[in-house]
Amino acid sequence: MSKRILVAAHNHPSLHPGGTEIFAHDLFRAYQRAGHEALFLGATNQIHREARPGTSFQGVGPAGDELLLWSGHFDHFFMSQIDLYGVVPDITELLREFRPDVVHIHHLLLLGAEFPHIIRRTLPHCQIVMTLHDYYPICHHDGLMVRTGTKELCHQASPDRCHGCFKDIPLDRFVLRERHLKALLSTVDHFVSPSAFLKDRFVQWGLDEDAVSVIPNGIPVRKAGAQRELLEGGRPIFGYFGNLNPWKGVTVLLDAARQLLADGHEFELRVHGGAPFQSKTFVDEVDRRFAETAECVQPRGPYRREDIGDLVAAVDCTIVPSVWWENAPLVIQEAQVQGRPVIASNIGGMAEMIEHGVNGLTVPPNDARALAAAMRSILEQPNLLRQFAENARKPDDIDTTARRYLKRIEPALLPA
Description:
Blueprint: E1 4-9, H1 19-33, E2 37-44, E3 57-59, E4 66-70, E5 74-75, E6 80-81, H2 87-98, E7 102-105, H3 115-122, E8 127-131, H4 159-165, H5 171-185, E9 190-193, H6 196-205, E10 212-214, E11 237-241, H7 250-262, E12 268-272, H8 280-292, E13 297-301, H9 308-313, E14 317-320, H10 330-337, E15 342-345, H11 350-353, E16 360-363, H12 368-380, H13 383-390, H14 398-413
Helix pairs in contact: 1-14, 4-5, 7-8, 7-12
InterPro entries: Glyco_trans_1 (IPR001296), Glyco_trans_4-like_N (IPR028098), Glycosyltransferase_grp1 (IPR050194)
Keywords: Glycosyltransferase, Transferase
EC number: 2.4.1.11
C-alpha cells in the first residue's frame, strides 16, 4: 500500500554534499521509485541560503517535492529550535498539509530536537523513524567523540568528561543537555544505525537496545563508466575522496606520502575534495604538505557527487584515514561496489566494512608511519590489490535498503 513519507535532514546535498544528506536524499528517491509519495525536507541557514520574508520554506529542485526549511535561529548546545513563533508553526502547518504516514529523520541539527515531539503532537498516529548517522546527541564536540584538548578518541561521554572538554560550560548544563535530548528522543518509534558500532555507542548512552536496528546504508546503481585496470601503467594510483578537514586525516595521509617519497617509492596520490569552512591555519598546513609532496601528490579539488564513481574507478586503491569514529563512509561503499581495495583506519564503522588482509588493509588512526607501511605493502606486493579486489564486499543498492526500511516500518503502521 502506498504511503506518504516525509524525509528530513539537516541540509540538502545540492548545498552541502555530506554523507548524511546524500544518503537521505538517495533514500527519498528510492521511496518514490517504490511507489510511495515522498517529500524531502532539508534544513539550512545563512551559510547556504538567505532568509525569505514571510515563510520558513524555500523551494529546491523543479518537481515541487523538495523543500528547504530556513533555520537561522538554532541552539547548537541543546540542539534546539528556538524560533518558536516562526519555524515551529510552519513545521506544524507542513505536517498538517502533507499528513505523512511516516517521518524519517536523518539528523536533528537545524531541525531541532523538538522535531519528533512536534510530529507526535500534530500527528499522533504518524510513525517516526530516525537514522543515527553520528554522535551529535551524545557529544557536543560536533558529534565527533574526540577530546578537544588532546584530540584522543573518547570512548564514553559523561557530563564530567564533556565539561572537561568545554570548561567554560558548567557541568550541570551537560546534565541538562543529556536529559533534554533523551526526553525528546523518547518520542521516536524506532532508530536505525548503519553500523553495529554506532548502535553500541547509543545503547551505552541510554537508548533501548531493542529500539535500534542495524541497516547498512546502500548506494544508487549507476551505469558503469570506464574503469582503470588495476595497476594499468605499472605505477599504483592511490585516491582520497572527501572534504579536507582535521578529522578526515588528510594531513596524516600527506605525511605518509612524504615518508614513501623519501624512501624512493614511485606512486601517485590523487586528493579529491575541497576545504570548505576550514581555518586558514589548517588550509595553510595542508597546502604546505601538498608543496612538500608535489612530486607524487595531485590536489584535484572538489568534485560532484555524480562523478564519484568515475573518480574511484580511476584509482587502484582508496584511502580513508579518518581520525574519528566514522560510522559508514560513503567512499568505502563506492570503492567496494567497483571492486576497489581500501586502506582505512581500524576504528568505528570503518572496521566493520574493511577486514584487514581480506578486502583491504586497516591501520591505527592518526599514525602516518603505519599508514605509510600499509601503502608500502601495496607498492611492494602489487598482487595484494587483485586479491583484495576479488574479496570486495559490495553494499546493497539503495532500493534494497529502502525495502529493508519499509519492512521495518510497515508492521508498526498496521492497525492493532
